[in-house]
Amino acid sequence: MQARYIKTEGIILSVQPYLESDSILRILSKELGLIPAIARGARKSTSKRSGVIQPFNKARFELYSGRNFYTVVQAQNIAPYAMVSDSYIKALTLMFASEVVLRTHEEGQMIRNAYELLDAFFAISMKIKDESIFVYLTGFLISYLRIIGYQMQIYSCRHCGRRIQDSVDGTLLETGEFECSECGENEIRNLKEIKAALKTSAFIERRAGIPSTHNEAINFKDVNILDKNSLLHLLKTAVSYLRANTEIEFKSFDAILKAIETEG
């Protein structure tokens, strides 16, 4: 018989008001995958859990397993990632990453390494500067696409096989493929933004302790000064590829685009 009381570690992806003072949570659990849970009285001003029951927080939960929902019996903060809300840019970014994970999981579904990857991305986001967050978001998307089965083929040219680290110019196509400048007929761009995203992807995977397909990207050089328009194009291409493969529209992405366009 399945235990009715369960202890698990999880990241809160979303919080919705329910009834007068309750909240419905969607939690990405390390042991259980994506789960729904009710936090009774979490919105009361006297609730001791109100500071824990916030989007993005990583917490240790004690849950009671009901018919349709888990009920939060206890919740203790492990990492207060909700603190990024002090930064509008970071809050938008974590909201979008949470939506991507939430919309690409079924309830009760375990996707290997998804929890570790999101946890690593959130932890890194707490420490980096606001202006770096979007290239780290693109790196997270590259890694997340791989673990859900839609790996982008951007490590070598789709025509000649030339490695991206040996190229200066080229194109990232909406098919998720890389085309070097010598083979391509599409718009040619400098590759420093793609290399920066690959470098952050490898860094997030290393932090998450999960296998990587591009460890060598950690050593990419000259990827610090990025062009805003090229970064915007790169992120749009990655999200277009995600949409094409999942057939999901992500509501928070428009806010991300506006934030990039108005930054710097």
General description of the model:
It is a single chain. By secondary structure, the chain is of the alpha+beta class. The chain folds into 2 domains: 5-82, Beta Barrel (OB fold (Dihydrolipoamide Acetyltransferase, E2P)), CATH 2.40.50; 87-262, de novo design (two linked rop proteins). 34% of the residues lie in helices and 23% in strands. The protein contains 6 helices and 9 strands. It has helices at 88-103, 114-125, 133-147, 192-208, 228-246, 253-262, and strands spanning 5-18, 22-29, 33-39, 58-65, 70-79, 153-157, 169-172, 177-180, 189-190. The strands form 2 sheets. It has a 5-stranded mixed beta barrel with strand order 1-2-3-5-4. A 4-stranded mixed sheet has the order 6-8-7-9. β2 and β3 form a beta hairpin. α1 packs parallel to α3, α1 runs antiparallel to α6 (253-262) and α3 runs parallel beside α5 (228-246). The protein is elongated and about 65 Å long.
